[in-house]
Amino acid sequence: MILRFFMDEGGNIVLKVNDIHHIAIICSNYEVSKHFYVNLLGFKPLLEVYREDRDSYKLDLMLNDVYKIELFSFPNPKQRPSHPEACGLRHLALEVNDMIEAVQWLESNNIIVEDIRIDPFTEKRYTFFADPDGLPIELYEA
Fold first, then answer.
1. What is the pTM (predicted TM-score) of this model?
2. Which helix (H) or strand (E) holds 140?
3. Between 20 and 30 A from 56 (CA), which of 27, 69, 109, 125?
4. pLDDT tens digits, one per residue of 98-121
5. pLDDT digit string (tens) for 25-68?
């Protein structure tokens, strides 16, 4: 095995990472979350398996033909605090072309969306909403 390293701008040797491979999400209600990610957000199922030994579903989801999310179900998962800001993964960010259209679509599907804000550094519009388990999801306009 050959490990690939490279030198960053500061002269430090760092691991060469190509991309983020996927994000894993544990949900409390598999069918509700599957509907949310597939039918409302447009992710496409790649592979769905039921793991009897763990009483758990695993659904691999793609966006634009690229594997992005592993959606897991487990019996009685523990709640992870998100508000106030908790240590750990803060949110999942999705890029959209038209913020107003995206917000209207979400709201027409009874999803509560925060007010649209402007990023002071990029001057791009963004907002937040939550998945069925309260995971914060950001919409960021391209």
1. 0.84
2. strand 136-141
3. 109
4. 999 999 999 999 999 999 999 999
5. 999 999 999 999 999 999 999 999 999 999 999 999 999 999 99
| Burial (0-12, 13-18, 19+ Cβ within 10 Å), 74 | middle
Ordered structural domains, the chain, with CATH:
20-78 (3.10.180.10), 79-142 (3.10.180.10)
Return the half-sphere exposure (C-beta side, CA atoms, 13 A cut-off) of residue 123. Answer: 0
Query: What string of DSSP letters covers 8-74?
Result: -TTS-EEE-------EEEEES-HHHHHHIIIIIT--EEEEEEEEGGGTEEEEEEEETTEEEEEEEE-
**How far apart are the C-alpha atoms of 47 and 50, rounded to whole Å?**
10
Q: Of 118, 130, 35, which is closest to residue 90 (Cα–Cα)?
A: 130
Residue 37 CA to residue 53 CA, distance in Å, equals 25
